[in-house]
Design goal:
Structural class of chain B: mainly alpha
Number of strands of chain B: 2
Strand order of the largest sheet of chain B: 1-2
Largest sheet of chain A: 2 strands, antiparallel
Oligomer: heterodimer
Strand content of chain B: under 5%
Number of strands of chain A: 2
Distance between the termini of chain B: 29 Å
Largest sheet of chain B: 2 strands, antiparallel
Helix content of chain B: over 70%
CATH architecture of chain A: Orthogonal Bundle
């Protein structure tokens, strides 16, 4: 009985953690690489989940809807970055604090707009595999967790390959290191940052699809996620993409252990405790370079 | 004297002719006058609703001022004002439930709890960049919320209904009494903020906001200053929360740790102007009275949406708030 519970808590934790990594991926790009503290990212994810829910209610598969919505989210990300950059980037780094307030306001406006449009009711999707599970010995893996959990490694691998092997990807990593040097080599850093921000926003809709396949989503679902996503990014170490999945799984497993053996009502505090502990003890994260 | 004069040039110029001591006297007189006016009003106005509404507005003033000590002077954004506010509110509720304590005991207790929480928070996060501090404050709200949900003695998710003790007879009623207490807290908070602003502590905070590295190099004790900003701000915010249970006879985690308060605490100083003490007051009175009028006519969701849009507008167009706008206008005319 105990072994059964333990094995399943680990299994659920790994899957949840993988999903957290998917949620945090956009932030790993904006905050980890571009140093833009986009606390509105979880609100973007929730908005993505709503887009997927609307598409699903018209009879389309959630993942298909997410794939199609990648483009509008990318474009929206470009536009949002342009707005942000015009206000803050030229004034220099000292305005990070005002930028934070801006993102806070934006996430609030997104959430409340969703609330007014769709009401406080939770939105959900219906797919054939929800309710079934894959059973391996003691371990039972519900498909509603397994399918989104498999999305994260795929997304992270694709993004990692993109950053490693394409011209634009290398430029994105370069802009994270030294903006001046990049502009000396004849590339407009602003263009590259805008592009990276667009990619980060596009990951939000896939993460949103993952979030809504797990279970119903309400407009303020992003609030809890702010801490979790930042915990993942900070624990992973700034800018380390493969690290996000390890950090996500670490947090997911800790949460499901607490849920299984203490009480589910304590679970939300786990990610935040990990975040605070990381900031206090090892601010460079598990896989990050010293900063 | 040289330090004082250099400060005076940084402060609003028109009143610079008067000596700082005289201005402090005028300020004290005004503060006493506000308190006396409050006391007179409780005796003359019969409609208790006025005090229900006025309590909220005065509470907003205290909240905005408390937030501004850390967020405005020292430049550390705190998204978790409700964590401190809630800690204070639940300290008050706990003392009232356990010992039937008077409000005057709850206030210093809440201030101690809030100050301690601020110190802890600062100690854990201020060694890294300010961005992390801001994120950690969001985390703090969720942790406090989770903590309260799991303490059955404090009522958990369903909240706690308590009967506050009888107010002193001369105040004319519970609402009037709690309003006066809150007015006292607000005046105290503003006086504290003003003292910080004109003393060496405020100069230290401004140095932090301008450039932490430069301040450190110039021998400013940055870490100790940051910690004291956290502690003072936390204490004021918690003290502002303490009277809540005496005001409403009921307390629940959803409202205490709710979004509306956290948002207001940021929006009010930003709208008024966060560089000097009148800014938060202007913002709080403006936003507070508009909201009091608006909650009657429009939904609370729309209310939050409007505040959010106004917040974005000010951050984008006028980061120094209304006072900043007035300053630029005045300079433009000269």
């Amino acid at each position: 009985m105990f072994l059964d519970q333990f094995v399943n808590a680990i299994g659920t934790g790994v899957m949840l953690g993988s999903i957290y990594a998917a949620l945090a991926l956009g932030l790993a790009v904006t905050f980890g690489l571009l140093h833009i503290p986009n606390i509105a990212h979880p609100a973007f994810v929730v908005a993505g989940a709503y887009v997927v829910a609307v598409g699903n209610s018209c009879g389309f598969d959630p993942l298909l809807v997410a794939l199609v919505a990648l483009v509008p989210f990318y474009v929206a990300g470009l536009g949002f970055y342009e707005f942000y950059a015009r206000l803050f980037e030229r004034r220099g780094a000292a305005d990070t604090m005002n930028a934070l307030t801006l993102f806070f306001g934006v996430s609030l406006v997104v959430e409340t707009a969703l609330l007014i449009k769709f009401g406080t009711n939770q939105q959900s999707v219906s797919v054939a595999y929800v309710g079934q599970s894959l059973t391996i010995g003691l371990l039972s893996l519900p498909y509603r967790l397994l399918v989104p959990a498999l999305l994260a490694p795929v997304m992270i691998l694709l993004l990692w390959l993109y950053l490693r092997f394409t011209h634009a990807g290398i430029a994105i990593r370069a802009v994270a290191h030294d903006e001046r040097a990049l502009s000396v080599s004849g590339i407009d850093p602003r263009w590259i940052k805008r592009h990276a921000f667009g990619i980060a926003a596009a990951t939000a809709v896939v993460a949103g699809a993952a979030l809504i396949i797990i279970g119903p989503v309400d407009p303020f679902g992003g609030r809890l996620m702010i801490g979790r996503t930042f915990a993942v990014v900070v624990l992973a170490g700034m800018g380390s993409l493969p690290g996000t999945i390890a950090a996500g799984i670490l947090i997911g497993v800790s949460e499901s252990m607490v849920s299984a053996f203490a009480s589910p009502s304590w679970a939300p505090a786990v990610a935040f405790s990990i975040l605070l502990a990381t900031l206090a003890l090892r601010p460079e994260g598990l896989f990050g370079a010293h900063r | 004297m040289t330090a004082k004069t250099s400060l005076m040039t940084a402060a609003p110029p028109p009143a610079a002719a008067r000596a700082p001591e005289a201005r402090t006297l005028v300020f004290c007189a005004c503060a006493l006058a506000v308190l006396a006016l409050g006391a007179v009003l409780t005796q003359t106005i019969a409609n208790p609703y006025v005090f229900f509404a006025a309590f909220i507005i005065v509470q907003q003033v205290a909240l905005a001022t408390g937030w501004n000590v850390l967020g405005g002077y020292a430049g550390y954004i705190n998204f978790g004002a409700t964590a401190f506010y809630g800690a204070g509110a639940y300290t008050g509720a706990f003392l009232l439930k356990a010992y039937g304590a008077s409000i005057f005991l709850c206030l210093p207790a809440a201030a101690l709890v809030g100050g301690g929480l601020g110190l802890l928070m600062g100690y854990m996060t201020l060694r890294v960049q300010g961005v992390y501090f801001a994120i950690a404050t969001i985390a703090l709200v969720v942790m406090m919320h989770t903590l309260v949900l799991n303490i059955d003695y404090l009522g958990g998710a369903s909240g706690l209904a308590l009967m506050p003790p009888e107010p002193p007879a001369w105040t004319g009623g519970q609402v009037q009494f709690v309003f006066l207490v809150m007015l006292g807290i607000a005046v105290l908070a503003v006086a504290c903020a003003r003292w910080i602003e004109i003393s060496w502590v405020g100069r230290g905070f401004r140095a932090l906001r301008a450039s932490e590295e430069a301040a450190e190099c110039a021998g400013v004790p940055t870490f100790r200053l940051k910690l004291s900003a956290c502690a003072i701000s936390g204490a004021i915010l918690a003290m502002t929360g303490a009277p809540l249970v005496f005001y409403a006879s009921f307390i629940e985690p959803e409202t205490v740790f709710g979004l509306a308060l956290a948002l207001n605490a940021i929006a009010m100083p930003l709208i008024g102007g966060k560089k000097s003490w009148p800014g938060p007051i202007i913002g709080a009175v403006l936003l507070g009275s508009v909201q009091q009028a608006a909650t009657i006519t429009i939904s609370s969701e729309l209310n939050i949406l409007l505040v959010g849009v106004v917040l974005i507008g000010f951050v984008a167009a006028a980061p120094d708030g209304i006072l900043g706008l007035v300053d630029t206008l005045r300079k433009g005319r000269q």
